[in-house]
Amino acid sequence: MAELYITIGRQFGSGGREIGHKVAEALGIAYYDKELLAVAAKESGLSHQFLESYDEKPTNSFLYSLVMGQQSLLMGGQEDSVEQMAAKAQREAVLAVAEKGSCVIVGRCADYILRDKPGLVRVFICAGQESRIDRVVHRDGVTPKEAADKIRRMDKTRGAYYSFHTDRKWSEAANYDLCINTDCKGLDAAVETIVHFVKGQCK
Amino acid sequence: MAELYITIGRQFGSGGREIGHKVAEALGIAYYDKELLAVAAKESGLSHQFLESYDEKPTNSFLYSLVMGQQSLLMGGQEDSVEQMAAKAQREAVLAVAEKGSCVIVGRCADYILRDKPGLVRVFICAGQESRIDRVVHRDGVTPKEAADKIRRMDKTRGAYYSFHTDRKWSEAANYDLCINTDCKGLDAAVETIVHFVKGQCK
């Protein structure tokens, strides 16, 4: 099989991370989520802790850049704020792991960073509010109210980070190849659908 | 198999209509697209021509209602402008064909109208600008420039109609169960993926 790069964007609490892991297992290829931070730290010389603090998170000076219309480093801008140093390290890490061969990459604008790579399949995972709250309550041990707040905050953060670095709208169907709502058939069916889809013959 | 209602939202020129037809054929169930107009005419007593002129199209007085914040009839409003008469007839037609059993319904906010129906699978079909222009040029015999204009106009129209009648955003991944970009694997693979997905075991 030719090289395959499956990127997974996901609403917070939709099960996207678990799905990504299972897809990688099913296809026998590498999986990167938080693992990208270690790669980014190694490649850039920046500390893991520093990179984690900017992981898919816009910050105040990031928002300032947004307002001022400064161009994102992922898009070729030349700014070097701390956020952009972190974003650049993430970008290099995504490119570095893709160089090693087929993989699943969760988040980090990997769909955009690898946009010209043959074998790219861009997946987005979503779910209804109720099931997401339920998942976050059980996974993170928080109250339903705290889960709802976290979901709203995380989606906003991911959406802002994605839009800033890609000039595209996060969660817009047309920016992905396959979007699956896990409420309909569950997580395992989503895994199976993705595996079935990526193995399908190209047109 | 239990009853199955597959609704297909689609970007103009993405191949959604052809996919819907083939999915219905593959599953041996009814298919409704323009066919809904005949049902709506029969059920409502309104003329086919009248209904066609309002088919998924907002008009001036529709836009007026939008600006004035009048509630859509699909959402339970009580206005009875001509657009709303047409929308009500469409709604009744969607409910009437769903009463007859499993089917594929293209467009017309059917995903929203049937939102409480067990067995509903909401699909959205999209594609890149280049392939959509190519498809419209060949299908409608227009120039690439005319095709691009038509795509922009039709998507805007469908989006406005959908938002007004559902209070949801058209083309937003989270409003569907499965979204497929036909650029990735082509139309036949999209048909196969939908059939595979809807036949999948529920969680």
Beta-strand segment tally of chain A: 5
Q: Regarding quaternary structure, how should these chains be classified?
A: homodimer
The sequence of SSEs of chain A as H and E is EHEHHHHEHEHHEHH
* Helical content of chain A (DSSP H or I, runs of 4+): 40-55%
The H-level CATH homologous superfamily of chain A, spelled out, is: P-loop containing nucleotide triphosphate hydrolases
Widest sheet, order of strands of chain A = 2-3-1-4-5
Major beta sheet summary of chain A: 5 strands, parallel
Distance between the termini of chain A: 16 Å
User: Total domains of chain A, how many?
Assistant: 1
Number of helices of chain A: 10
- By CATH, the architecture of chain A is named 3-Layer(aba) Sandwich
Shape assignment of chain A: globular
Largest interface: A-B, 32 and 31 residues
What is the highest CATH level, the class of chain A? Alpha Beta
Structural class by secondary-structure content of chain A: alpha/beta
At CATH level 3, the topology of chain A is Rossmann fold
Kindly describe this structure.
With 203 residues, chain A is α/β, with parallel strands linked by helices. The first copy, chain A, has one domain (5-197): P-loop containing nucleotide triphosphate hydrolases (Rossmann fold, 3-Layer(aba) Sandwich). Chain A is built from ten helices and five strands. A five-stranded parallel β-sheet of chain A has the order 2-3-1-4-5, with helices on both faces. Chain A is globular. The model of chain A has no long low-confidence stretch (mean pLDDT 88). At the A-B interface, strand 4, strand 5, helix 9 and helix 10 of A face strand 4, strand 5, helix 9 and helix 10 of B.
